[in-house]
Write a structure and sequence with these properties.
The protein has about 300 residues and is an alpha+beta fold. The chain is built from four helices and 15 strands. The chain has helices at about 5-15, 20-75, 90-95, 135-140, and strands at about 85, 100, 105-110, 115, 125-130, 145-150, 155-165, 165-170, 190-205, 210-215, 220-225, 230-235, 245, 255-270, 280-290.
Length: about 300
């Protein structure tokens, strides 16, 4: 064969893609790229939506647990619910009417969840000594704490002046002597911090617009749960009304034995796609009964 045939063979081997082949490859590549982008955007939307839902659930759980804990404990103490509250100070007055509120906020008063036994022989109107060696009294009580001291017959309130060892001394005398247990068991003497919390919502200056706040013993507002838009509260009055009805304005708060709470909650998704809102809005509703007033 001639050299010309060899040259023709080499020319055929060096041939590349044609224009039509390149166009087909580009179209296929664009289809694959478009599918990948669509999957990525879908995953991003799913992640953003799930993140918003998770934030709603976390904030709902925090709001629900803390508000209902206070409601259930309203008016409660380590001593008998029949214990006579002595004294005319503001704390005694508040404890005699431990639930106050309206359709959008509420205030609960009770002793703290933990109380501590007092040695009967050491108790007086001016100081008490804890029975147990641990925890150390100074780890629990601080100067200026408002405390409830009670036995099974009487209850009073005082302000802590100092703590030394296991002995807590008051800045002013209690309205009764705790070791006066003629009508109560000597082992019933207890001490606990007083808890008075006001729950409400207010603007938070962020994209979620509003949050749930608490003011403890008249102190500054502390943010508890982000995104809570409002509190819608209704009260169950144990007597003097329809036993199955919840109302926003009960005629007698002293007869309220349960509260229903409705909380719209908003979370904001991390990303936003065109035409979509970043807000995730949900509403939770729950009810809590007051243990000290349960039938």
């Amino acid at each position: 064969m001639s050299g010309r045939g060899i040259d023709m063979q080499r020319s055929g081997q060096a041939a590349g893609f044609g224009l039509i082949e390149l166009m087909i490859a580009m179209v296929l590549g664009l289809i694959v790229l478009g599918a990948a982008i669509a999957v990525f955007q879908s995953n991003q939307r799913s992640y953003s939506a799930n993140e918003g839902q998770n934030r709603v659930q976390e904030n709902a759980r925090a709001a629900y647990e803390m508000v209902t804990r206070d409601l259930r404990a309203t008016g409660g103490s380590a001593c008998s619910s029949e214990s006579l509250v002595l004294g005319a100070d503001s704390h005694s007055v508040a404890f005699r009417a431990p639930l106050a509120g309206n359709a959008t906020e509420l205030t609960t008063t009770s002793s703290d969840d933990l109380s501590y036994r007092v040695a009967a022989g050491s108790a007086s109107a001016n100081s008490v000594t804890l029975v147990e060696a641990t925890p150390t009294a100074s780890d629990v009580f601080k100067a200026n704490d408002i405390v409830m001291v009670c036995n099974a017959a009487m209850t009073g309130f005082a302000t802590v002046a100092s703590v030394s060892g296991q002995t807590i001394t008051f800045s002013a005398s209690l309205p009764f002597d705790p070791k006066d247990t003629a009508n109560a068991d000597p082992g019933s003497i207890s001490i606990a911090r007083l808890r008075s919390n006001r729950w409400f919502t207010q603007p938070n200056g962020r994209a979620t617009a509003s949050s749930l706040y608490v003011s403890r013993s008249g102190g500054a507002a502390e943010e508890v749960a982000d995104g809570v838009q409002s509190l819608a509260l209704t009260y169950h009055q144990a007597s003097g009304g329809n036993p199955n009805a919840y109302v926003a304005a009960p005629t007698d708060m002293q007869r309220v034995d349960g509260v229903r709470i409705r909380m719209p909650i908003r979370a904001v998704m991390p990303t936003q796609n065109p035409g979509e809102t970043r807000n995730v809005d949900r509403t939770i509703a729950t009810a809590a009964s007051i243990r000290s007033r349960a039938p």
